[in-house]
Amino acid sequence: MMQPSDDQRPAFRATVEYDGTDYAGWQIQIGQPTVQGTLETALAQVCRETSRVIGAGRTDAGVHASGQVIRFQCVWRRPLADLERALNAVLPASVAVREVALAEPGFHPRFSARSRLYRYTVWAAAVRSPQRARFAHYVKQRLDLDAMNEAAATLVGWHDFATFGVDPEERAGRGNSRREVLQADWRTTPDDDGVWYRFDIEANAFLRTMVRTIVATLLAVGRGQRRSSEVLNLLLAADRRLAPPPAPACGLCLVHVRY
């Protein structure tokens, strides 16, 4: 497909929602279904040219999004509402584009972001629920909400989060595991069959697996397997070997990106 050079094509931004269950993550991988690849295929169909899609967050395999932000370039001479409709007409049911607009000069979904908000959902009940399992991590026992919130509060502020994740640039020798967490708290919503636990965490940026590893640690506190005071010790240790395996991806969702 022929296309003009990138600097001649207008840039667009959009919000994307997706069910990440059947994807190998955001970033393109050879031979694997990815959200980025799915969006680029849709753009090629609609605009009849290749276009690289840049996202605000590189979500892992199985992770969802309701507020992923993307940027792409293409030639489009009709109303933006038509572009949104055309993309959604060819995208699979698991991915939807909304709020398509012209991107501001210099806008970059990742580097222009001030913070990102992730939500992790846990469903606690005596019996598992197959319908809820796609978007929530199931546990049998009720959790100690106060203890989890006490532990989560120690994460707020500037810290070295090396215990809970890895900087993607670490292998290139540019790794930096310091991040600023702006919010970290749990809340509950009763249900006829059990209880929903939702953990919101907002930070200027995240390390790879950082949110799910934090959740796994806090769930151990909620079950009484760790004391809330231990979380601060884990944080100060900055040692990935001390943390538990990440919580399942099904419960995690990128909710919002702030600019």
The counted number of beta strands is 10
Gyration radius, to the nearest Å?
20 Å
Mean pLDDT: 94
**Tally of DSSP helical segments:** 5
Globular, elongated, flat, extended or rod-shaped: what is the shape?
globular
Fourth CATH level, the homologous superfamily of the largest domain: Pseudouridine synthase I, catalytic domain, C-terminal subdomain
Task: Please give the share of residues in helix.
Answer: 10-25%
Listing every helix as H and every strand as E from the N terminus to the C terminus, the arrangement reads EHEEHEEEHEEEHHE
| CATH class call of the largest domain | Alpha Beta
The largest sheet, given as strand count, sense and whether it forms a barrel, is:
10 strands, mixed
- Low-confidence segments, given as residue ranges, are none
How many domain regions?
2
Quickly give the CATH architecture of the largest domain. 2-Layer Sandwich
Report on this model:
With 259 residues, the protein is α+β, with helices and mostly antiparallel strands. The chain has two domains: 6-102, 2-Layer Sandwich (Alpha-Beta Plaits); 115-258, Alpha-Beta Plaits (2-Layer Sandwich), CATH 3.30.70. It is 21% helix and 29% strand. The chain has five helices and ten strands. The protein has helices spanning 35-47, 80-90, 145-153, 210-222, 229-237, and strands at 11-18, 54-55, 64-73, 95-102, 115-125, 137-139, 157-160, 178-190, 194-203, 252-258. Strands 1, 2, 3, 4, 5, 6, 7, 8, 9 and 10 form a ten-stranded mixed beta sheet that branches. β8 (178-190) and β9 (194-203) form a beta hairpin. It starts with 10 loop residues before the first strand and ends with a strand.
